[in-house]
Amino acid sequence: MTPKKLKAQYRNERLAARDAIRPDERIEKALAMLAHAGDAIDLQPGEIVSGFLPIRSEVDIRPLMARLRERGARLCVPVILDKSTIVFRELVPGAALVSSGFGTAGPGPEATVLDPQIMLVPLSAFDSTGHRIGYGAGYYDRAIERLQQKGLNPRLIGIAFDCQEVPSVPAEPHDVRLDAILTESGLNFVSEVIG
To answer: Taking the chain, what is the end-to-end CA distance rounded to the nearest angstrom?
Structure first.
């Protein structure tokens, strides 16, 4: 099986497993993630952290994002500009959110565009070495590459439920490895950069 086909298979299987988690269980798992990572993520006041607002059956990391804001983080979320580009717009309390494609919402065009230093990355599947499978559109891979072209090297924390782990993700040249993975079981560092 080609890497692309195996990734598609893993994506479908792991998203189906995620979809099967009851909504009340999802809330409990999100609160467990907050307990594991809210104070454990190394964060300097003023650092820019990109989170995301949940779509479909994704974990709701808004409690974690709120804790990081309390600790001094400047928050932003991805907004889709076109079929290949996302930018990260600042998320400030009380600001209106607008539909931004792919079932997502985010701050409108008047919001400041920021370059994240820490990225909380949604995914469909991951392995214990930090390789991830996204949703197939490549938005995050391209966004991370653009940041690296600017000389930035954001710390990447994958966000998923335990049921989204697979034995091994077939890595391709364009894939970017995560520095850590946060699930309801804990914050696992897979890179010296972040641990």
So the answer is: 34
pLDDT tens track for 144-180: 999 999 999 999 999 999 999 999 999 777 778 999 9
- For residue 62, the one-letter residue type is R
Quote the radius of gyration of the chain (alpha carbons, Å): 16
Q: Which helix (H) or strand (E) holds 79?
A: strand 74-82
Question: Does this model's pTM top 0.85?
Answer: yes
Q: Are 57 and 85 in contact (CB under 8 A)?
A: no
* Beta-carbon count within 10 A of 40 CB: 13
Q: What is the pLDDT of residues 47-101, one digit of tens each?
A: 999 999 999 999 999 999 999 999 999 999 999 988 889 999 999 999 899 988 7
State the DSSP H helix or E strand holding residue 104, giving kind and residue range, or none if neither. strand 104-107
Distance CA 25, CA 110 (A): 36
Nearest C-alpha neighbor of 134 from the set 2, 10, 1, 5: 10
